[in-house]
């Protein structure tokens, strides 16, 4: 619900958009994007982001022991080193758009001996328990995840970040994300996907693991902390806390593919208001991604047949957001350019 000032600002933004030298609404979704950013910043002409950052929440999952991913668990650890060395897809794309890459150890099964300003140790444990055998973590750990995620967002914003991106890394992430989604009532048949390209048998094992997780843990869909504790992962809880805090501080936050959208699902179940600050950077190829985005009424900016994660799709959407901001700030109005308005616009 918008208050009177927000409603007034919205009208002012729409009036400016309609006075720019273009047919009414001809810039489509770009106009919606800049309206949302304007309402977030409380300005008709929003500022361009000056400090763009992606935070990759990395952790291991006990469920990976069930053969639910096409890759071995060690890849989580190895990819973190790759991120820190600047060699992953997210590094390349972030350099391209001028964003900084931060890596969070939310609970990887391994220790890091790195001193790097872009590495954040927020370890809750050495991977979660296998949730096909019992809860992934304790309720205390789940609460700690949310708290750590909030703290990471707080520190990011206090040190100047004005556009945040959520990224994920963790072998077994799409299984855990699916278990979270199914716990909240999504149909497994609409959600289940091959993730990093598992084969038919792997997909069967994945389905079984998700079903077993729900069956034996009985997560309470009205209690998001319970869902996180029973069938979640350390990185998912931290993503949720990060999104909640970003929204509280009125900083736009971009989600990426299926796993980060499961993080949003947890946050949304704690506070529906987060959606005013969240953008879906892209739609990934994972089947359930569209299903969840549609349920949240979030329209993705890009649709590039990607299925990677790390924040890659979201980071690539940043130039579109920037172009939308430049559009409202730099385009001439009909008056300033001496261009004739449409017949219906002339009163
Ligand atoms: C080399 C490599 C780099 C990645 N970067 C992101 N992911 C992505 O794949 C994982 C989830 O897929 P699943 O649920 O099938 O295990 C996550 O780590 C995700 O970020 C990667 C996966 C691999 C193998
Ligand atoms: O949707 C994603 O972002 C995704 C898909 C497959 C593996 N990891 C992430």
Report Rg: 21 Å
Strand segment count: 7
- Principal-axes geometry comes out as elongated
Strand order of the largest sheet: 3-2-1-4-5-6-7
Report on the biggest sheet: 7 strands, parallel
CATH class of the largest domain: Alpha Beta
* String of helices and strands: HHEHHEEHEHHHHHEHEHEHH
Helix content: 40-55%
Structural class by secondary-structure content: alpha/beta
Spans where pLDDT lies below 50 across 5 or more residues: none
Tally of alpha and pi helices: 14
Task: Please tell me the overall pLDDT.
Answer: 97
Total number of domains: 2
The ligands found in this model are: alpha-ribazole-5'-phosphate, nicotinic acid
Function: Catalyzes the synthesis of alpha-ribazole-5'-phosphate from nicotinate mononucleotide (NAMN) and 5,6-dimethylbenzimidazole (DMB).
GO molecular function, one term: nicotinate-nucleotide-dimethylbenzimidazole phosphoribosyltransferase activity
Catalytic activity: 5,6-dimethylbenzimidazole + nicotinate beta-D-ribonucleotide = alpha-ribazole 5'-phosphate + nicotinate + H(+)
Protein name: Nicotinate-nucleotide--dimethylbenzimidazole phosphoribosyltransferase
């Amino acid at each position: 619900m918008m208050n009177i000032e927000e409603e007034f600002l919205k009208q002012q933004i729409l009036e400016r958009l309609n006075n720019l030298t273009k047919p009414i609404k001809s810039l489509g979704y770009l106009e919606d994007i800049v309206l949302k950013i304007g309402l977030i910043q409380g300005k008709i002409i929003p500022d361009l982001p000056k400090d763009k950052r992606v935070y990759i929440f990395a952790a291991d999952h006990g469920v990976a022991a069930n053969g639910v991913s096409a890759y071995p668990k060690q890849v989580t650890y190895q990819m973190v080193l790759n991120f820190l060395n600047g060699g992953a897809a997210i590094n390349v794309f972030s350099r391209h758009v001028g964003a900084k890459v931060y890596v969070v150890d939310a609970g990887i099964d391994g220790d890091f001996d790195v001193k790097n300003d872009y590495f954040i140790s927020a370890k809750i444990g050495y991977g979660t328990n296998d949730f096909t055998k019992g809860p992934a973590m304790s309720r205390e750990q789940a609460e700690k995840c949310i708290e750590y995620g909030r703290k990471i967002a707080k520190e990011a914003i206090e040190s100047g970040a004005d556009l945040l991106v959520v990224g994920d890394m963790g072998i077994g992430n799409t299984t855990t994300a699916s278990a979270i989604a199914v716990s909240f009532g999504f149909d497994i048949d609409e959600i289940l996907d091959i993730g990093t390209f598992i084969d038919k048998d792997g997909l069967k094992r994945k389905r079984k693991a998700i079903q077993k997780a729900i069956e034996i843990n009985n997560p309470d869909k009205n209690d998001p902390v319970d869902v996180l504790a029973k069938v979640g992962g350390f990185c998912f809880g931290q993503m949720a806390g990060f999104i909640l805090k970003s929204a509280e501080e009125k900083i736009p936050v971009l989600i990426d593919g299926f796993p980060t959208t499961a993080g949003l699902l947890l946050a949304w179940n704690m506070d529906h208001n987060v959606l005013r600050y969240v953008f879906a950077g892209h739609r990934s190829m994972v089947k359930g991604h569209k299903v969840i985005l549609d349920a949240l009424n979030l329209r993705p900016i890009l649709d590039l047949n990607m299925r990677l994660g790390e924040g890659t799709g979201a980071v690539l959407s940043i130039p579109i957001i920037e172009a939308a901001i430049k559009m409202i700030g730099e385009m001439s109005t009909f008056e300033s350019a001496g261009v004739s308005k449409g017949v219906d616009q002339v009163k």
